[in-house]
Amino acid sequence: MRDLAGKTAVVTGGASGVGLALVRSLAREGLKLVIADIDQAALDAAVADLKAGGTEAIGVKTDVTKEDSVDALADAAYAAFGQVHFLFNNAGVGLGEAQRKLWDMPMKDWNWGFAVNVIGVVHGIRAFVPRMIEGGEEGLICNTSSFNGGLFSLPNTPIYAATKAAVTSISETLHWQLQIAKTKLRAAVLFPGPHVVNTRIMDSNRNRPSEFSDGNDTGAAAYKTMRDLVSATGLKLQLTEPEEVADFVLDSVKADRFWMFPEAEAQNTMLRTRTENIIARGELPLPALGI
After folding, report:
1. Entry's PANTHER family (predicted)?
2. What is the CATH number of the domain that holds 138?
């Protein structure tokens, strides 16, 4: 879909990180924006900024783990603009898993990770897709996955990787079902990168609901941004800024790509190695981290 001006887009997790960069890029393309986020202060600031630039935009405080909250988001979007053409299921959390073993992680971490990263996507699809189909116009549902889990799994983030593997699978199935049903909609799956994306996902606990807390949360993240984390490692890892991801998403939307991930030799090598080992029914080597 090349002509984006005048269309309406909904972006969950749209008040920070990749989501905020994406809504700003969409605004420059002339879209109307519905921003969903659980952080009211950040949401208000994002909407005010867009409106100051002349964009038609509304903000809806949304907890994607709650079906009724996402349904209310859809109601608000259709009440404001009458139609939705783009749904970016982008809200996601990190779990601070790097120093812990899979078998020692509390169930509330598993529950929270899956509630946001997976069920949040499902809630978005259920709330919007039937109305988008009924509207009879071309549209796109883009789900944010990750290279980590979505294409290959890294050993230090088992919950996060598992959720993103699920998002990739859901996106593929959605893509096929939309085609089989002969709708005017299509699906896509986004793998932000190609390098570590400089967001505050490491600081997800700032928005963690009490129902998903096990009482042992410190409330403060060791690192606020990925830049902090990369600096602490002492390694010369590259960073990708959210604005670069947003620009890539727009290019991918206009090119009608399903697999939205930028060209990068490190990821190509890891994906190729994984695929070859699956076909060979072979060993599972540790990934060589080059991202």
Report:
1. BLL7251 PROTEIN (PTHR43391:SF26), RETINOL DEHYDROGENASE-RELATED (PTHR43391)
2. 3.40.50.720
CA angle 204, 194, 249 (to 5 degrees): 80
**Per-residue tokens: 7:** 């269309």
β-bridge partners, 140? 86, 186
Total structural domains within the chain: 1
Tell me how far the alpha carbon of residue 95 is from its chain's centroid. 15
> Is 160 annotated as catalytic?
yes
- Collect all residues with Cβ–Cβ distance below 8 Å to 45 and sequence separation of at least 6: 15
Q: What is the pLDDT of residues 226-278, one digit of tens each?
A: 555 555 444 446 788 999 999 999 999 999 999 999 888 888 888 898 899 99
Whether 291 is covered by a domain: the verdict is no
Least confidently predicted of 74-88, 149-163, 173-187? 149-163
For residue 289, tell me if it sits in a domain.
Answer: no
**Domain-located, residue 134:** yes
Whether residue 32 lies inside any domain: the answer is: yes
Q: Name the residue range of residue 129's domain.
A: 8-279
| Ordered alpha helix ranges (H), 29-157 | 40-52, 67-81, 107-114, 120-135, 147-150
Query: The tokens of 58 are what?
Result: 């509304």
**How far is it, in rounded angstroms, from Cα 201 to Cα 205?**
9
Instruction: Give the integer Cα–Cα distance in Å for 14 and 149.
Output: 22
Reading the block at residue 117, the tokens are 């990263």
Q: What is d(CA 175, CA 250) in angstroms, rounded to the nearest whole number?
A: 19
The catalytically annotated residue of 88, 160, 191, 261 is 160
The amino acid present at 200, given as its one-letter code, is: R
Judge whether residue 290 has pLDDT over 70: no
